[in-house]
Amino acid sequence: MTAGVTDPVLKGFWAWYEQLSDAARAQATGPLMNKLRAFLLRPFVRAAIAAGPSTFTMSTILDEGGLLLARLPKGVLGEETARLLGSFIVASAWQAAARRAGLPEDRRPDAGLYVDECQNFLNLPYPLEDMLAEARAYRLSVVLAHQNLAQLPPDLREGISANARSQVIFSVSPEDARILERHVAPRLSAHDLAHLGGFQAAARLVAGGAETAAFTLRTQPLPPPVPGRARLIRRAARAAHGGGTAVTAPPPGTAGTDPRLRPAA
Fold this sequence. Notes:
Blueprint: H1 8-18, H2 22-40, H3 43-49, H4 58-64, H5 74-77, H6 79-98, E1 111-115, H7 128-135, E2 140-144, H8 154-163, E3 167-169, H9 174-184, H10 190-194, E4 200-204, E5 206-207, E6 210-211, E7 215-218, H11 229-242
Parallel strand pairs: 1-2
Antiparallel strand pairs: 3-4, 4-7, 5-6
């Protein structure tokens, strides 16, 4: 594996490593392996990270059109594993957007990055506030959703306040309402923000390059789920990428005619 290495830094590392005793090698790699074992012990993570070349690239999704949904339940993966894997995905999306610097602006299609519980997935090798400031130039819309301001470190909170110019605020605590009031005043007050109803939100948006006055709006609840559809989609995905019999999920709102696709009771 190292015979074809030409990078002088890598060659120097492996030359140093080969001279170590087994005990010294274990000491040198121990901290990294402890992290990796906890990360790769989960079959889903191992299949996603260490199963060979990916069937898609983030650049293809952003530049040619596509939709990537990443489900990272902390209760299943573990908090640290979900946080690290989510940060990988966010970093990959940003790197794919930054590659657009080599494209003329009119050839950069609009793309969006939506991060729920964003405070868990922002362990990045560069300041997020820089990413937010530069994303518009690459035509990447970044939507960060979180529960309360205390979840964000002060520098990140200030970076979001300065660069996330369009804000949608659902009902918040009185403490957060007092801080957020300055973004929606004088149309709305801290009392208004703390007493929003169900499916109601306050918004302050940027339109035509200028900030508009704050206003309230109502969102619509999601339609009822199709029974069994999530299970069928997962089965089809595993069959397509991990072996087994492939089945096609029925259109939304239907059960299909294939008995393998009938929703569970």
